[in-house]
């Protein structure tokens, strides 16, 4: 279940309903996938072959197609980030820089954990969405955000894009951002 930390106040929001209410107020979708649908050998597995990544997408094909029908995504992938990922430092440098996407995107956590830091509306400021397996959020179009790993430094996520080129990011300079 996701948890929220509002950086300006250090307030934490927990509990599915409270988290959903807050995220929806920020136009961020918050849903759940049932990770137990995955065959046991694919759960908590981070060194995935292409076939295993396809098996994950096949397992959640109904959920993916439902999101496609609802929100028009046109392409999707599985990303795995661990210390063993080639170019992990380069990848993290990209993901940890504030950026926007010109479209709404989906991130569903399959294994491991990750934090999306999203710029909230009005005076909310940046808030952390700490995610665990089964948590799904959207990253609203043109919303400044970045991503970082948690202490376990590993995550597997399904990503859905409208952009047929997949992950296309636009750097966003934010002088108001305080690294905390
Ligand atoms: C765990 S998803 C990898 C990060 C990503 O796709 C993104 O857009 C971060 O902002
Ligand atoms: Fe992003
Ligand atoms: Ni774009």
UniProtKB/TrEMBL annotation:
Binds 1 nickel ion per monomer. Binds 1 Fe(2+) cation per monomer. It catalyses: 1,2-dihydroxy-5-(methylsulfanyl)pent-1-en-3-one + O2 = 3-(methylsulfanyl)propanoate + CO + formate + 2 H(+); 1,2-dihydroxy-5-(methylsulfanyl)pent-1-en-3-one + O2 = 4-methylsulfanyl-2-oxobutanoate + formate + 2 H(+). Fe(2+) binds at residues 99, 101, 105, 145. One of its GO terms (molecular function) is acireductone dioxygenase (Ni2+-requiring) activity. The keyword Lyase does not apply. Pathway: Amino-acid biosynthesis; L-methionine biosynthesis via salvage pathway; L-methionine from S-methyl-5-thio-alpha-D-ribose 1-phosphate: step 5/6. PANTHER family: ACIREDUCTONE DIOXYGENASE. Monomer. This is Acireductone dioxygenase. It comes from Paenibacillus sediminis.
């Amino acid at each position: 279940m996701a948890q929220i930390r509002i950086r300006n106040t250090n307030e934490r929001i927990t509990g599915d309903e409270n988290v959903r209410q807050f995220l929806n107020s920020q136009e961020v979708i918050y849903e759940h996938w049932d990770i137990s649908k995955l065959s046991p050998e694919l759960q908590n597995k981070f060194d995935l072959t292409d076939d295993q990544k396809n098996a994950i997408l096949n397992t959640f094909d109904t959920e993916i197609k439902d999101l496609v029908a609802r929100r028009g995504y046109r392409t999707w992938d599985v990303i795995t980030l661990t210390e063993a990922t080639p170019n992990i430092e380069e990848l993290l440098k990209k993901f940890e820089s504030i950026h926007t996407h010109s479209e709404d995107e989906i991130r569903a956590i399959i294994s491991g954990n990750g934090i999306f830091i999203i710029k909230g509306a009005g005076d909310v400021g940046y808030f952390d969405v700490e995610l665990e397996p089964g948590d799904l959020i959207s990253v609203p179009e043109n919303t400044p955000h970045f991503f970082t790993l948690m202490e376990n430094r590993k995550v597997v996520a399904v990503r859905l894009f409208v952009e047929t080129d997949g992950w296309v990011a636009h750097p966003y300079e934010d002088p108001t951002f305080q690294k905390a």
